[in-house]
User: What shape does this take?
Amino acid sequence: MEHSTIPEENDKYKIDDSKVDGSKSQPRSYRVEALAKGLRLLSFFTAETPTLRVKELVELSGIPMPTTFRLVATLEEEGYLERTIDGQVRPGTSVLALGFAAVQGMDLVQTSDPNMRDLHARTAETVNLGVLYSDQVLFVARIPRRDGVLSDAIRVGSTVPAVFSSIGKVILAGMSEDELHRTISQTSFAGRWGPNAVRTMDELLEQLSSARSDGYLLQQESAIPGLSSIAAPIRQSGKGIVAAINVAVPTAEYTRKKLLDKILEPLLVASREITLRLGGSIQY
Assistant: This one.
């Protein structure tokens, strides 16, 4: 009696890579060449080369100009690249979002969490943790003030130019002069920010000098009108300053003296404890 063969339930998902002529099966490639080329373009952006011209991407990748132009246009539309004011391109917010997903698993965020919560409990104010991404600060953790008085413009995954952020300035203060000038250019000061925002390298250098000597930086209405903040550095073993933590408050509720009297000491305690947990050294 002839029996029919009943296919297994998952047979329809199996792929037969054998050739009709019976020769040895060859592995099938599932590579999507256009996607690979787009990812290759993104790989050329580094901390040392945060922006590139399309012509430079052509030279680096060996991909023809028409193809590169289309890839860049597509990556721009999807938010993975963005244009600078001088026509160059740099990684966009979608890349930052992917980076943030990776950052969430970093030791820095996990290690800082209990200290951030303690700082928030002691001050009842918004606590932020940020790292440097090119000439921007990327906010990787945040515990907001409960009454929602502060602007929602800053969220986890948001970026702010480092020259306008207390977190950014504290991190920049740990750089050598050469490294600072490679990171910050005149375009870093572009845009409309707070009324007390620095606008020149000389003004920035003056604030960085104070941050180095004081061990913290206090600013009022530099990044956002109506917002004041005070930041302190976080150091990691073998890497120097890798991040900074700040407390942000409504300017209307805090004079400079009140910020120093109420917020500075618990902020410094948090930054020192996170630094020690990361194996960094405390500098007084």
In short: Strands lie at 81-83, 89-91, 126-133, 136-143, 159-161, 217-220, 227-236, 240-250. The first helix runs from residue 33 to 43. Residues 14 and 186 are 57 Å apart (CA to CA). Residues 1-23 have pLDDT under 50 and may be disordered.
